[in-house]
């Protein structure tokens, strides 16, 4: 696997359930995603909350692309928040899954924070590809949020009212209150039909830990619970949100269906290379029962999902060098503790190459540095250097190689 690099974020838009354009971010791993996830934010929050951003980044670091979006009427999304409710949030989640399915790949993991957690529990059955649902600080009953909505008597009497939530003004209609009160959470959770991960902090003073207990008890197996202590409700500390994301990614690996590109069938005694069709240059390499990736850096038109062909060539030479030195040292009982080989490839003008036999055009130059650990004297070190230059791959690179090629 290629070293982890910072995930990339794409800004995108897609139509929500009401037809309004929803603003979204797709957090992508540097290598081709092993799966896609969908993230639902908390009540009146946005896709750009710390919890949403940090959890999505943590998933991307583990190879899972994550779509986080603003529900209708919130953040950068179109539409009127006053006309939305819990059911419309659920419908927006299904629309987001439809968008992923059509443009990329259907989400196999759905994640929700706070009321977004209740929303993904409700929407998951309408996303058939979703193998797992993860909730973070979610209420068991969506109606829990009613306790945080002021002026409910005014809303009941007049049908709507302007209220202040988290320092911002929102117009709340009675239909939102009725929709929240009309949910049947016990039936929803019991009939989930997906693997469930419940994450909650016992220090959550917005949605008490008892909500996690009720969700967990109502769900059928497979189900898991992870404590987020000492996190707060909003996961405002980066380390808490990142921890939640990494736990979700590790848990999800058990339930992912392995929809990535299939490795080429192994052929005894041969190496088989096949395009993955992810990007322009990504390849899967089967060497016996071993499978690895090959690719080019992003700057060269690849996805950086694996070593480049020249990196693999250097790896072969380096591995052969170290093995040859080790076999000789063990045979002669030399006090060699460890071998390390560092290699670099370049193409240079022949005239600049003092070690080259030809002086015309450009030549390939591989610089190899061998580090030998152990109580070796000068003569022993010199002998091991001599042996290193006799490794089979080294000899192959210095010999005249023929490569007969045909189309099958």
Number of strands: 15
Helicity range of the residues?
25-40%
CATH topology descriptor of the largest domain: Rossmann fold
- Secondary-structure element string: EEEHEHEHEHEEHHEHEHEEEHEEHH
Named at the architecture level, the CATH assignment of the largest domain is: 3-Layer(aba) Sandwich
Largest sheet: 8 strands, mixed
> Ends: how far apart?
31 Å
CATH class of the largest domain equals Alpha Beta
SS field, number of helical segments: 11
Q: Output mean pLDDT.
A: 91
Strand order of the largest sheet: 1-2-4-3-5-6-9-10
Contiguous low-pLDDT stretches (5 residues minimum) are: 1-5
- Structural class by sheet pairing and helices: alpha/beta
Strand content: 15-25%
Number of domains: 2
For this structure, what is the CATH homologous superfamily of the largest domain? Alpha/Beta hydrolase fold, catalytic domain
Which of globular, elongated, flat, extended, rod-shaped describes the shape?
elongated
Radius of gyration: 29 Å
